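[09:14] KT: can someone run the structure on this one? pasting the chain below
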Amino acid sequence: MTVVPDFSRTLLKPLGAPSGKVETFIEVPFTVGERSIRPDGIIAVTRAGKTWGAIVEAKTGPNALEPDQMNAYLDLAREIGADAVLSLSNHFVTAASGYPIEVDRRKLRKVSLAHWSWVNVLTEAVVVREHRGVSDPEQAYVLGELIRYLSDPRSGAVAFDSMGPAWTKVRDGARARTIRRSEPEVDAVAARWDDLIRFLALELTKDLGRNVKQLLPKREAQPAARRSALCESLESTGVLYAELSVPDAAGALSIAADLFARQVSVSTAVEAPRDGRSKGRVSWLLRQLGDAPEGLRIEARVARTQSTLATTLGEAHAEPGALYPESDKEIRSFLIAMTTPMGLKRSAGRGSFIDSVLDTTKTFYADVLQALRAWKPPPPKMKKPSPEEESQVPADEAANRLPPPDIARPAPEESGAPTDV
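[09:31] RB: done, structure tokens below
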């Protein structure tokens, strides 16, 4: 972080750190009262004579953050005037899950608390090096070594590799319609699902070089509300759901894992053009999906009705009329969906639930969403003057107008002098 300014700035700016000189220190001892505290690290950023500081605690592998330890660091931060306490571990934090553990919120009045997953740090390092570029060879080498280290399983900075011990019971219970939202296993799988979605967003961010984010409806903005909604969905329909926003994409990525039907579905909704008729709107979509998989499901959503017209992409290419509504109706939007069999295994790898979600989402984006372009209305056209308006142009103004290009100019008089063109 001290050697590669672009990398440190990317990580520290969201924490409120200024742009300045970065210094880092390892295992600095402090004494608070009669207690000796030795955090894993200190980050200091100095600018214009002022210093922003953060206390760092890091855990690797399966090691978990401890509430007593983090509360002690919050006390230390207040004692020494640090601005933030930062933790790193293999827990994936999302807007839905909040901080990984419970802490005394009263200690956050003057000190901010933040968390990074190791995969998040690895993702930002890859984005800086591969997509934004590091011109200095020494900086590029140091950042490359960090990426090589964190990518090695022996580093303890593991990727998302398991749905947790509750997965099998919830998976089978959803199939049999026997699970209840109040069961702790259902809550655990719901939490792990959001961790998987966050990991998926980081994977797409690393692949695309753009920040992919999870979208949450307002009613699920709070962690407890989000968890409750997922548990209710598991009990009633057996479905886990999420939505990701990709910058400049034609639509959001909607992801649904149906544990009852054992299918993973990834879809996007795009607005239909507002001009032309339904036939032209269908042609507009099919032209963009020329190389997409034939098994895609296409739905045409018709104005002023709840019904939809649906077919596969292959059938739509052969008979586009299957998507045409009645003559007095118009298509307002399209839904494009890809469905694949759901993996059943708890741990990552071939045949796993995790890999089926990751692979289906990435395939859908590569084969479908990245080729789609949202419809935009054409620019307004310049109005042409009518013959009546042309006849009302003043004579002196008409004389100053250039002749149209297709009207021949009179030939110049023959003389030895050059002719101006």
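[09:33] KT: thanks! The first helix runs from residue 5 to 12.
[09:34] RB: yep, looked fine to me
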